[in-house]
Amino acid sequence: MNTEVRIEDDGAVRWLRLNRPERLNAVCEELYTALEQALMAADSDPDVRVVVLAGEGRAFCAGADLKRHREGRTEEQRRHYLWQEQRVCRQLFTHSKPIVCAMHGYAIGAGLELALNCDWRIGSESLQVSLPELGIGNFVGGGITALLPNLVGLANARRLMLQPNRKFSAVEAEQLGILDAVVTNDDLIDRAGHRAHELAELEPASLMTARRQLRDAVMHHYDRALAEEWQAMVAATGGADWHKKLEQNA
């Protein structure tokens, strides 16, 4: 049984909590697999109307587990892991149920990419977000090269991607358009749950159609971005610069 994602139902709302708190919920193959399975189960469950994605412990998700990267992967394993990120993010973006993301502590790299593929993002006041990939010799994923310009505008997308060493505060993230709301640390779970229950009360067919129509506006660019990002990540993580910076940062 997978333990990397905790599952809990609250009426028509299903909570999925990333559960690697000892690693600040940094992503790895096992976490992606558990999340993928949990999303599929929520998708097929008629009693689930809305999903909330959150993180256990001190952070939502601190990005890729660099320790696991240092332990080494075969070429095939590396390609599979990188495509796993793309596949899970697409699953979030195209899910049949709306997804609210409750973010606290850190949403870094792959963690922010998971969040950006959700429908609604609420951040605690302590949240910091960042896209550090270009600074460590890697490349962004999760389709965000298509999503970010549509979500926050081209100028703000550049600010996020091309300042890899900068962490943005929750207030800055809201101003940029990444967050839909900033709340106190103590209120995060209640506010995310409240928003999820509001969505659950909407007429399901109309809600699904609205989400599909909005999604279809970027779907062609999104799928192309997933493929091109994956190719860029495969090339980058096979290079000497990545391995050098991995040793410095892991």
TrEMBL record:
InterPro entries: ClpP/crotonase-like_dom_sf (IPR029045), Enoyl-CoA_hydra/iso (IPR001753). Signal peptide: none annotated. Transmembrane segments: none annotated. Coiled coil: none annotated. One of its GO terms (molecular function) is catalytic activity. Belongs to the enoyl-CoA hydratase/isomerase family. This is Enoyl-CoA hydratase. It comes from Saccharospirillum salsuginis. The lineage of its organism: Bacteria, Pseudomonadati, Pseudomonadota, Gammaproteobacteria, Oceanospirillales.
